[in-house]
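Now for one protein, fold included:
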Amino acid sequence: MKAYERLLKYAVIKTPSDETSTSTPSSECQFDLANLLKKEMEELEVSDIQLTDNCFLYGKLPATKGYESAPAIGLIAHMDTVADYCEQPIRPIITENYNGKELALGNSGLTLSPKMFPHLESLKGHTLITTDGNTILGADDKAGIAEIMTLVEHLQKESIPHGPISIAFTPDEEIGTGASHFDVELFGADFAYTLDGSTEGELEYENFNACSASFDIHGVSVHPGSAKDTMINACLLAMEINSLLPLHETPRDTEGYEGFYHLINMNGDCGHATLNYIVRDHDTEKFQYRKDKLIDITNELNKRWGENTVELHIKDQYYNMKNIIEEHMHLIDNAKLACERTGLAPIISPIRGGTDGCQLSFRGLPCPDIGTGAYGYHGPYEHISAQSMDKVVNMIIELVRIYSTFSKEK
């Protein structure tokens, strides 16, 4: 089965994680995909298959005879998607021999355009898989799952020699909570890769330091006719808080290693309001400065309007795995070599986000990220080509070959 055919099968199974949930998995629907994958792994004769109560699916491919001394390499992808654009059934659209130009997304009124995504011109002649404009596609990260499963099929059916391989499909990556429940010991790999990036050939080992920050604003609501020196409008305080942040340090205005404050939602009335942000920066000192800036704003407003008028809650989510991976640069060097041997141009780039590998690296499992070939994550413009997925499969097959003769001592 081709990788894109697997993606089409997985994509229609809706698996949005739930940020408001306190359980793992955060949504029971993730088991729908996990159970399907478990069955497929059984059919492909993967060994040591375990589906846990927390919806982590583990499996192993024992080393080919004669390759038992090779390091155990792990491959990881996540089953959940974002919750946005999941209200309607997911209906992937296949466009064969795509012409590289504007493409209407079903009857939604949305158009996939090279003006928005310049790389589309390079996909001319490809079989393009898109949404119908009403939902996400779910290639983040079901493309990664499809590519790993296709790798397994190639290894098994073509008797490709390999060392020990560990496989895991995880829940709740999109809300940043899944990796904390990952059983590193059960997984049994010396190191691993997540397949959760974008462009094919993309290799990522520098990610944001990340936290969430929420402001809880307590106003004083009274009749506006007698509000003089009494009313404290929580909504106006919320607007002031945002105005005190640097104007151009938002996702829209930043790129590369530049950090940002991102207001993800706001609610409120005169008496009470909330602001919820995510804060990101690659540099540790700058990350701390951003958090200190939020604390300073809180203190300033409380000094002016009264103690506890504004409450700030900051929660660290993950940290930059660069310092971990730099001690294991063979992970990047060998991935680059695998790209080059399969005709892909290696692209070393910082992650403007995070993956399960960020947390896992700090838990003793060095785990950089590999691109899946998908673009436009987290919205109705999400797309991927069948040929891009094939290239990624070829690249990770070559990566497995490289590690089959790699010394653990290197």
Notes: The CA atoms of residues 160 and 251 lie 43 Å apart. The mean pLDDT is 95.
